[in-house]
Amino acid sequence: MNTSLRLAIAALLCVTAVGCAKKAVKTQPSGNTESTSQPTTGGSTEAGGYKETDLTSDSCLRQRVIYFDLDKTEIKGEFQAQIACHSKFIRQFPNYNVTLEGNADERGSREYNLGLGERRGNAVQSGLSSAGAPGNQLNVVSYGEERPTCKDHSEDCWSKNRRVEIVYTKN
Amino acid sequence: MRAKPLIRFANHLLCLLALSLLGLGPALAQAPQAGLSSDVPTIVINTGTAAQLKIAVVPFAFEAAGAPVETDVSDVVRMDLSRSGTFAPLDKKDVVEFPTRGNDIKYATWNLLKQQFIAVGRVTDADGGAMRVEFELYDVAKQERLLGLAITGQRSDLRGVGHQIADLIYEKITGLRGAFWTRVAYVTAAGVSPNINYALMVADSDGYNPQVLVKSREPLLSPSWSPDGKKLAYVSFERGDSAIYIQEIATGSRQVVSNRKGINGAPAFSPDGSKLALTLSYLGNPDIFIMDLASRELKRVTNHFSIDTEAQWMPDGQSLVFTSDRSGKPQLYTVSTAGGDATRLTFQGEYNAKSSISYDGKKFAMAQGTGNVYRIAVLDRSKSAAGMNVLSPGSVDESPSFAPNGSMLLYAATDGPRGVLYAVSADGRVRQRLVLADGDVREPSWGPFRQR
């Protein structure tokens, strides 16, 4: 029990640490905080402001899926630029609501995977919030393993299903 | 809706592959026996260590007026007994004599065929267009009658009559109540994302007579039977997010009982039917709650930052078994329905989730993951060395559900991209695939005993 408690506390610390890392992105939005930031997206997040039409044309905003490692809920460095640009757009356009659809791969039980999908959705929500997106525009829905994009029993397919989809709705 | 059987059975190689995978040793493995005839369900039997009971179910005579019925009641009985794993019924093609009454049985013949039991019967007319099925069960060695009964049913429900006869034979010989005359619920998904049509189905325990209860364009999951078998609780995403519904099977009328923010999942009726255990995440992360169904009041049972879900009631209604990843990966835990500390139940296996508890509270089936392979495992706490017995070969097996007498389980597996259901005897000796017409099938849930 002691061991598991310690593990749990360690896990909590990890989550907290991830939260801090996201805040760092917010305070230094110049795009070079992470070595893994995608160079193609640096320009648009630096720009003064988005136009509404950028949602469908901007190379960063058009990326709406964040992928996760097995059993993991932290947002990998390569997706920090995506988090930054979406949070900027969301903050700029209060008439848009965003649903973060959490998903899991097929392995394991369906109800547990609902929980995993929600965890991932929450991680993206907290990432967006930390980067400045107002919480009242964000909503998390977990679909667990119920909405796979592929059905092969392979890591290649599983890695595509461990994802959060960023879905915009205009009010 | 009464459909023609949409189900057929395919044989499956269990023995050598599964046993070698599970490391149970070559001593248990034997060549598969020949299946039954080609137009009826075929199963492969692994004879294991204990002997299976040999019974000859002689085709029942049709002595009623009018056209013969489609259903051969004795076929239903034979297949039920075979599926249980406890019996090895004589192949229909090997039945050489056709007695229909006890007096007609020539015991020497059945002794020669090494049969321990023989069942004979006949179908006659009953009042109001119904059919009366009379049957007798004999002990071959003792030449003694064990049962002599008649069951009356509608012409359209002769499969139901067959299941009841199989239950009576099973109980007479094993002492354990039969569970063939029961129903199962499951979820089907047809089509490709984003145009998937989901359906919640109910069928006989052998998969015949499937009925659609709910159709939806959004995911359906986790059907759970009320103890009286009249209602199902389930999760539907038809409102956009998860919500728990309770639906009457006979009338189709239903109510939303939980649609809070976040996850509304894993409903499970208490043994007395008055409460529902469920998973809710509206307070931040998934925890187990109990809802009083009359007042709809919620009581929180677990309070932990891990994922706690998939609560199942122990038969006494005093505690729950649930899945939690509080130790890292999912494992099974028990907790009093009054709340308090949870006790870890499973220690063997990296990943253990979604329990199903046998009626006596001694066996816990679960989806067990090791690496990328997920199989159905059973923890038997009635044995001194509480080891895990693995019942399925994997690799994406989940959702075990015990029959109400604990003799068999249903579970979900995959065949390429398709979900399929298997029935497996609780000792793992007999496994049979249920192939349904509707494509992807998952989330089996075995219903309670039925009352005549």
UniProtKB/TrEMBL annotation, chain A:
InterPro entries membership: Bact_OuterMem_StrucFunc, OMP_bac, OmpA-like, OmpA-like_sf, Pal, Pal_lipo_C
Main subcellular localisation: membrane
Residue span of region Disordered: 26-53
Biased composition (Polar residues): 27-44
GO annotations of cellular component type: cell outer membrane
Localization terms from the record: Cell outer membrane
Record membrane topology: Lipid-anchor
CDD domains: OmpA_C-like
GTP-binding in keyword set: no
GO biological processes: cell division
Pfam families: OmpA
UniProt entry keywords in alphabetical sequence: Cell cycle, Cell division, Cell outer membrane, Lipoprotein, Membrane, Palmitate, Signal
Domain OmpA-like: 55-171
Signal peptide: 1-23
Family matches, as HAMAP family: Pal
Quaternary structure, from the entry: The Tol-Pal system is composed of five core proteins: the inner membrane proteins TolA, TolQ and TolR, the periplasmic protein TolB and the outer membrane protein Pal. They form a network linking the inner and outer membranes and the peptidoglycan layer.
Family: Belongs to the Pal lipoprotein family.
Biological role: Part of the Tol-Pal system, which plays a role in outer membrane invagination during cell division and is important for maintaining outer membrane integrity.
Protein name stated in the entry: Peptidoglycan-associated lipoprotein
UniProtKB/TrEMBL annotation, chain B:
Keyword annotations of the record: Cell cycle, Cell division, Periplasm, Signal
Pfam families, sorted: PD40, TolB_N
Gene3D superfamilies, alphabetized: TolB, C-terminal domain, TolB, N-terminal domain
InterPro entries associated with the record: 6-blade_b-propeller_TolB-like, Tol-Pal_TolB, TolB_N, WD40
Cellular component per GO, a single term: periplasmic space
Superkingdom per UniProt: Bacteria
Principal cellular location given in the protein's record: periplasm
Signal peptide region: 1-29
Domain TolB N-terminal: 42-146
Compartment list: Periplasm
Family: Belongs to the TolB family.
Stored HAMAP family: TolB
Complex formation: The Tol-Pal system is composed of five core proteins: the inner membrane proteins TolA, TolQ and TolR, the periplasmic protein TolB and the outer membrane protein Pal. They form a network linking the inner and outer membranes and the peptidoglycan layer.
Protein name: Tol-Pal system protein TolB
